[in-house]
Write a structure and sequence with these properties.
The chain has one domain. Helix content is 32%, strand content 19%. It is built from seven helices and nine strands; from the N terminus they run ααβαββββαβββααβα. A hairpin with a 4-residue loop joins strand 3 and strand 4. Helix 2 packs antiparallel against helix 6 and helix 5 packs antiparallel against helix 6.
Length: 228
């Protein structure tokens, strides 16, 4: 339509294709590595370097969140997000924590009520955790990601587990019904949603991404695939 109207106005139109995005260190290498590691696209031609993009795997969610808080002091552009594997219990009981990882004493709440899409600018929201529904289309300098039990590596194969998602997650609404009608189709659809959820979460950071995996074997899997 733009070309048609420009032609009517006598304007010369040149069509260009954008081959890269200014995200994650301004390089496609990290995205290519992430897509391959998550099993979304097979692409071995990447040269992801830690010099361009700060990617770190943490063994403790408290340490990871504290690192994000430290980065946030600079310009209020760092936030923590997580896979939607914890029910939103603080919606009706604000005093309760949604995301709990007992072995580390980690507790946090979803920011779905307090800030919504304003989590990106509200200074206090660095204490909370965003999800796929609040962070799509938004970027920060540094993002901390908690990968839940819906994405696990078993015998060096990355798998997804829809049953590990929270009951309050609408992105998998109708999964159980679809499973009865066509199990293979339902599982493939859920698998794609979960993998793309983490692709979105792990690509929100412009300068760096810090990750904590609930499952230690999955952390080892990602470490194994990090470029030397």
């Amino acid at each position: 339509m733009i070309e048609q109207e420009a032609g009517l106005a006598g304007a010369l139109v040149e069509r260009l294709e954008l081959t890269s995005q200014f995200r994650c260190g301004g390089s496609d290498d990290y995205i290519a590595w992430l897509d391959e590691t998550l099993g979304i696209h097979a692409d071995t031609a990447h040269y992801f370097s830690g010099d361009k993009f700060d990617f770190q795997i943490f063994d403790n969610p408290v340490d990871m969140h504290n690192k994000i808080k430290e980065k946030n002091k600079v310009n209020n552009k760092s936030r923590v997000v997580a896979g939607y594997c914890w029910d939103w219990i603080s919606k009706n009981k604000p005093d309760l924590s949604d995301i709990t990882i007992p072995e580390f004493g980690y507790k946090a709440t979803w920011n779905l009520t307090s800030d919504g899409s304003e989590w990106i600018i509200s200074p206090k929201s660095v204490e909370e955790v965003g999800c796929i529904h609040t962070c799509q289309g938004l970027e920060v300098d540094y993002v901390g990601v908690i990968v839940g039990p819906d994405l696990v590596a078993i015998d060096d194969v990355l798998r997804t587990d829809p049953s590990a998602r929270a009951k309050t997650d609408k992105s998998l609404a109708g999964y159980k019904k679809e499973l009865k009608e066509d199990a293979i189709k339902a599982e493939l659809k859920a698998d794609e949603i979960i993998r793309n959820t983490y692709r979105t979460l792990m690509s929100r950071g412009m300068k760096g991404c810090y990750v904590y995996f609930v499952d230690s074997e999955t952390a080892d899997y990602f470490r194994m695939l990090l470029p030397e």
